[in-house]
Fold this sequence. Notes:
Layout lengths: L2 H10 L7 H13 L6 E4 L8 H8 L8 E5 L8 H6 L15 H5 L4 E5 L6 H13 L1 E3 L6 E3 L3 E6 L3 H6 L5 H7 L2 E4 L9 H17 L5 E2 L1 H9 L5 H15 L4 E2 L1 H7 L20 H40 L28 H16 L4 H5 L5 H10 L4 H8 L3 H11 L5
Parallel strand pairs: 1-6, 1-7, 2-3, 3-6, 8-9
Antiparallel strand pairs: 4-5
Helix pairs in contact: 2-3, 6-8, 9-11, 10-12, 13-14, 16-17, 17-18
Amino acid sequence: MNTSELQKIKQRYNIVGNCDGLNRALDVALQVAPTDLSVLIVGESGVGKEIIPRVIHDNSPRRREKYFAINCGSIPEGTIDSELFGHEKGSFTGAIGESEGYFGVANKGTIFLDEVGELPLATQARLLRVLETGEYIRVGGQKIMKTDVRIVAATNVNMRKAISEGRFREDLYYRLNTIPIQMPALRDRGNDIVLLFRLFAMQIAEKYRLPKITLTEDAKAIMLKYKWPGNVRQLKNITEQMSVLNEGREIDADTLRRFIPQDPESTQLAPISPSGSHSYESEREILYKILYELRGNVSDLRRDMNSLRKQLDEARQLNGAGGFRSLIDAPAASTLPERSNRSAATPVYAQQAPLQAEEAEAEEIREPETLNLNDLGRQMVEKALERNGGNRKKAAQELGISDRTLYRRIKQYGLDKA
């Protein structure tokens, strides 16, 4: 492509820059536009990948048909199949009618799948079928639908790594990557950084009726050396910040340093102590304190449980092996073991009432099986079943346990084989 044609494309889509990487990406896009080949645009986040599919569509035979740009990473996994391929009425909760989906509505047109590397594996299989045969099935449907759609995809994911980790299908990658287009990072575009700054400064000045900011030579040198991890998007944000927040209209090196991170290799803003180093000691002390408090809480809980278990064991000894028996079936006072903190002359019912209250309160904390079955032996289960004619439900009610717990104990004692 000659220089004049390339400049016309840049003017039409408001593309600023003249680096070799950008020119090559635009050249490939225009060459592949008249075909129906799938295109995969690769580049870091914020480099402006979204302009390439627009150029391809507008210079293709499909330019009069519909164009949809879909961010695959922003659609929930549970609904993305319905969004892309449509659904039948009643196929899921909320499906009150039919939906054609993007592939149905965009028939004869172009679909741009941004962040295609975020697609779930099940959706990737559906997309592969569309690329191979032009066929798909709506969610909840059985009828095979046909579509004629040009697919352009983009990703900032390392696709080779995603394939090796099983997060992306290799066959789909090769289908999408028929024509690869690499968008250069802003740090590799040289003087384009200054040109883009001028464009953003002019746009913000016109939008908010402000005097336009300019860069000194030392500020330009800092901009060219900075790594720009956020690429064009980050440059635009910083230009807008300086235009609105800085009183002076000439940006020098010191002013610029206030708006960009000091560490060009990092995008993280770690808290800095007055001495200039991050204090990890304070974070470690906080974690130690939390762990110490948790350990204390666990120790207190263990002590309370041991005390409760001791009380329940004493209660069972007083009430006999039958657990929660009624006062009518309780043994005589003379047969109860003597306790040091109770008088031997204390009536049985006076001792049993508070004990039963304690057990009832403990029952909310412990599972019924641990409360009633720990001391229930084979003989008690057998007698309960005999008294109730083998009716497990009635036997469980008599023993004060659930049907499921009784069934597990029957299997444990081998009574189901007797």
